[in-house]
Amino acid sequence: MHQSKEEARKVFLAFLAKQNYRKTQERFTILDEIYDSGEHFDAETLYEILKEKNSRVSRATVYNTLGLLEESGLVVKHQFGSNVALYEKAIGYRQHDHLVCLDCRKITEFCDPRLGNIQNKVEELLKYQITNHSLIFYGHCTQTACVHKTAAHEKQD
Prior knowledge:
Number of strands: 5
CATH topology of the largest domain: Arc Repressor Mutant, subunit A
Shape: globular
CATH class of the largest domain: Mainly Alpha
Mean pLDDT: 87
Largest sheet: 3 strands, mixed
Number of helices: 6
Helix content: 40-55%
Order of helices and strands: HHHHEEEEHEH
Oligomer: single chain
Number of domains: 2
Strand content: 5-15%
Low-confidence stretches: none
Structural class: alpha+beta
CATH architecture of the largest domain: Orthogonal Bundle
């Protein structure tokens, strides 16, 4: 088992115990699926993946468990300018920011250490202790041979 998944299971166990929630197999099946993947995902896609794996997890359990995982700090919820919430795991994942293509909705993660320097300056200047941040750039891919752009146009046809 990956170290981050193991750590996530411990955090989730402690969270469920503290909140007096049941420690069900379904909740841990959902947690394991999330921590086995490195992608951004939405609730419906997660439900379909679990269904394909013959899991007995209901759609309602997926949505409810995602709420608990967000509350416990194990997943981060993003909107990325659309009506569909996307999630990503929060433990074992380095701080990063996002670039979203407005044509095909592809999400690119990036990390630039200069942003950490800016954060430090803001903390110092405004007398704040910043615990996290979120930076999202939106734009249009300028690559002429963008595979994602081509796939998005084919879906529209």
